[in-house]
Amino acid sequence: MARVDLHAHTTTSDGTLTPTQLVRLAVENGLNALAITDHDHVGALDEARKAAHGHDLEIVTGIELSLVEDGVELHLLGYLFDEKNERLVATLDRLRAARQTRAARIVERLSDLGVDITLADVQAEVGEGATTRSIGRPHVARALMTKGHVASVTEAFDRYLGDGRPAAVPKEKLGAADAIALLHDAGGLAVLAHAVTIPAERREEMVRRLAAHGLDGLEVAHSKHGPVERETLGTLAHSLGLVETGGSDFHGTNKPDVKLGSGRDGNVEVRDETLNALKRRKAARRP
Ligand code: AMP
Ligand code: FE
Ligand code: FE
Ligand code: ZN
Question: What is the pTM assigned to this prediction?
Fold first, then answer.
């Protein structure tokens, strides 16, 4: 039985394994397909494909985008698109440039709060290519750890960086209809990520809105989803004709309890049939 993971991050965004290290781990874990879904970035794919060469591991083109729809923040996964699509590339460039400006503003906020940290400290956590990779709050969180201000990434989010906390600065987000159209125009599919992060009272409404904009799938299995959420989301996906997908949302040591290919305590188990369903959906979109 072929196993897959359709949601994972590398050092190109806020994961802690390089694309090559992630591919090695996927092979060790016995996966046969891996979607790399870095935030606002497709730069890991080439290296991952090279690293997968000679292994029985398919690298699936992926991305994770942040959206805002009627005041609610959502994450959208894109799959099987043309990563060289001009409008997509231009949009991702713009989103990453906005992330750089925002990182500087987060550092300013922290300084105003009396926390000793500089943009260079944050860039050191991003590492090589600090100005071209997708810089985000997890890098700030790691810098806060390195400087001894917090003991963990979780503590950094709880005290400073989480939504509504004193150093949180919103990032640029796409609208749902625009983001879905962008992925479709690039030949790909749009899947709503970890719906559990949407406030419960607005969850179903949001899924229905996105479905009306052409959403293709719903991430039913995710490391944050328990059995009840999987059941509810599976039923909703089925009723709206959406593909039921799944992925761990692996981030390496930034989310230490989430394992590639199996999620949290084995709560994510995805088969190649899921990837095949996405491929069929894509084929059906084509005239
Ligand atoms: P950003 O894209 O810069 O807004 O940062 C959001 C990212 O931070 C998410 O993709 C997660 O990887 C991570 N994140 C959000 N909340 C937490 C948390 N409480 N603990 C650890 N990581 C988090
Ligand atoms: Fe992330
Ligand atoms: Fe996400
Ligand atoms: Zn993710």
Answer: 0.97
